[in-house]
């Protein structure tokens, strides 16, 4: 019954839905930290200050991660705001390393700029650009991410009139608020909106609870039947076939 209502809108998760996020995260994580270590060491030497041990010796990458975990526990409101957690952790570690508060803030900010540059070097799957171009002709599109990619910085950002950064809203998925914000800004009802995402917990469950239909991107595991309203796809490229199969494709 609800399945026959024509779709008005489609919302998309980003990381691991429109691109493979693992490689870019590894490159970003190691890349910005190495940049900070190198630039900071040069800066200290130029000021005649000891740069030994180096920052990355005093604080290996694992201790940075540990520092962020502690901050997330002690500042639960910010637990999903990864950008805030990173910058705050870096500022504190640089302070412990011996920088005065102003320099610590400056270097943490510079490292985060480098982080964001690297973080946005994502490579969407080749099918994504033509897919969004076609879908954008028939449906209103939104992105909803917990990650810190600002989709408007990417070429494919132009396909998303609505882009929700759930972590920065301090309400990361599975909180329903980022979905509700997207629906309100799209002017779409949940029953006539399809959410596309790879995480069962952060995409499928919350969208389904709101009455949205869901395409779950999950590489083939088995063919167990899905609950009503949930459709499993191996890859986002299979979305047009799903829309046709469900009779949801807009004919033109
Ligand atoms: Mg994802």
TrEMBL record:
Keyword list, A-Z: Hydrolase, Magnesium
Domain of life per record: Bacteria
Coiled coil location: none
InterPro entries reported for this sequence: HAD-like_hydrolase, HAD-like_sf, HAD-SF_hydro_IA, HAD_sf
Pfam family, one: Hydrolase
Gene Ontology BP annotations: riboflavin biosynthetic process
PANTHER family: 5-AMINO-6-(5-PHOSPHO-D-RIBITYLAMINO)URACIL PHOSPHATASE YIGB, N-ACYLNEURAMINATE-9-PHOSPHATASE
Protein name: HAD family hydrolase
């Amino acid at each position: 019954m609800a399945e026959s209502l024509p779709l008005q809108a489609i919302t998309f998760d980003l990381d691991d839905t429109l691109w493979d996020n693992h490689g870019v995260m590894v490159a970003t994580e190691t890349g910005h930290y190495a940049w900070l270590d190198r630039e900071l060491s040069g800066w200290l030497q130029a000021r005649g200050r000891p740069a030994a041990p180096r920052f990355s010796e005093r604080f290996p990458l694992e201790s940075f991660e540990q520092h962020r975990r502690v901050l997330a526990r002690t500042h639960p409101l910010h637990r999903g705001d990864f950008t805030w957690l990173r910058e705050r952790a870096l500022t504190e570690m640089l302070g412990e390393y011996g920088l005065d508060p102003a320099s610590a803030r400056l270097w943490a900010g510079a490292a985060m700029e480098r982080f964001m540059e690297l973080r946005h070097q994502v490579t969407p799957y080749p099918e994504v650009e033509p897919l969004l171009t076609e879908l954008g002709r028939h449906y209103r599109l939104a992105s909803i991410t917990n990650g810190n990619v600002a989709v408007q910085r990417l070429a494919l950002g132009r396909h998303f009139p609505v882009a929700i950064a759930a972590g920065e809203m301090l309400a990361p998925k599975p909180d329903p608020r980022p979905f509700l914000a997207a629906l309100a800004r799209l002017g779409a009802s949940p029953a006539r909106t399809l959410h596309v995402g790879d995480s069962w917990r952060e995409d499928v469950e919350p969208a389904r609870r709101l009455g949205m239909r869901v395409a779950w991107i999950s590489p083939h595991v088995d063919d167990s039947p899905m609950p009503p309203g949930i459709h499993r796809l191996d890859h986002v490229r299979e979305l047009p076939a799903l829309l046709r199969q469900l009779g949801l494709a807009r004919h033109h």
